[in-house]
Amino acid sequence: MSVGTAFHPRTAPHNRKMQWREWSGYFAASVYADFHDIEYNAIREQAALIDVSPLYKYEVSGRDAQRLVDRVITRDATRLKVGSVYYSPWCDEDGKVVDDGTIHRLDDDRYRWTAADPQYRWLTMNATGLSVDVEDVSERTAAIALQGPWSRAVLAAATGETFEDLRYFRRRGTTIAGAAIDVSRTGYTGDLGYELWIPADRAVDVFDALLAAGKPYGIRPAGMIALDVVRLEAGLILLEVDYTSARHAMNADQAYSPYEIGLGRLVDLAKGEFVGKRALAAEQRAGGPARRLVGLELTWDDIVGLYDARGLPPTAPAVVSRTHTPLYDATGGRQIGRVTSLGWSPILKKPIALASVPPSHEPVGSKVSVEWTVEAHRGRVGGTVVELPFLDLPRKRA
After folding, report:
1. Do 28 and 143 fall into the same domain?
2. β-bridge pairing 350-357 and 171-176
3. Confidence band (pLDDT; 50, 70, 90) for 366?
4. Is 99 part of any domain?
5. Same domain, 298 and 218
6. Claim to verify: residue 47 and residue 146 sit in the same structural domain
7. Residue 184: inside a domain, yes or no?
């Protein structure tokens, strides 16, 4: 049975269509407005509030807290300074990704760890022999993403402080509505934005203060459908969509290494031992994995042609498809991979997708074809491999 997050008393009245989905046992709004483009525009042009409380949150503390972090993640935790945040995957012994998330260094011996899936057992298993405490603080810590070009102005208005000096992937404490909170310069939108980590019993007060502070900037709550569109534009992967957790994989094809999902840049094979290091090193010595994550731009004229052949006007995908779709070589004759996320970018005015392809089709400019179905008739549309992210806004890092 799903329950509301700490923000539910405020988010529920905004959800006029009562469109909810389940996220880790919580109600998450699919869309608040009549259509998600209103919320998409708030993220890209104004400011938006996205309830991300269902994320799993852990506090790792103690004398060996850094050793545990470094033992688990693929990045060098000894370089993570107090006040900074890492985004990183972590792997099993076979070098396959268990999950990805953020690690915030709160103090010399204290970290906040966020994840999409439960990680308590994994962290405690890897803490064997270490003087460290792992505490699940998911229920007592609410989280909201304040995103969009005016998010900094809204945050300043709500706190009475400037956040011009809080750089990308940094964090610091502040106060909103009398509640002590933590602010990180992070998000899942590819835009200027922040994530606020709030005592659950003060979530409603903080939400009200943010909404009031953001009124001059056109702030509004945004749901999961709009979030899915902006994360695709930003080229950001989603667990159980663009890759499967190694813990849930039923066969070898469902297990992915970081190098297979665009996270190879976050693997530091020069650091000390960590879970999966030997397998990842062996994979690299062998020339890398047999599949790679790429971005695709689909040929709109081909899509139009398929609809025209059925006597129908063309339809752009309004929401991001999370259904894996066969991907073929440019001739359409041989399957070479799969599309994992596909949707229409309102700002780029084109259909885009994330796909898994062999190394031969990884270079930018490579041509492929994607299966596209109209009225139960299967066809092919052309696609071109492009640089990720599809949308790289300078203000994201400004």
Report:
1. yes
2. unpaired
3. very high
4. no
5. no
6. yes
7. yes
Residue 384's domain spans which residues? 292-394
Tell me the sheet residues that pair with 194. Answer: 146
pLDDT of residue 332: 85
Closest alpha carbon to 204 in 12, 3, 2, 1? 12
Residue written as token pair 């060996």 = 64
User: Is pLDDT at 3 greater than 90 in this prediction?
Assistant: yes
| 238 domain residue, yes or no | no
Q: How many domains does the chain have?
A: 2
Q: What is the pLDDT of residues 240-281, one digit of tens each?
A: 999 999 999 999 999 999 999 999 999 999 999 999 999 999
Number of Cβ within a 10 Å radius of residue 300: 16
The Cα 21–Cα 205 span in angstroms is 24
Find, among 130, 132, 71, the residue nearest to 271 by Cα: 71
The H or E element spanning position 158 is helix 151-159
* CATH number of the domain bearing residue 18: 3.30.1360.120
CB burial readout 259-286, b (16+ within 10 A) else e = bbbbbbeebbeebeebbbbebbeebbee
pTM metric for this prediction: 0.97
Assigned domain for 66 exists: no
From the list 79, 214, 83, 90, the residue with the least C-alpha distance to 150 is 214
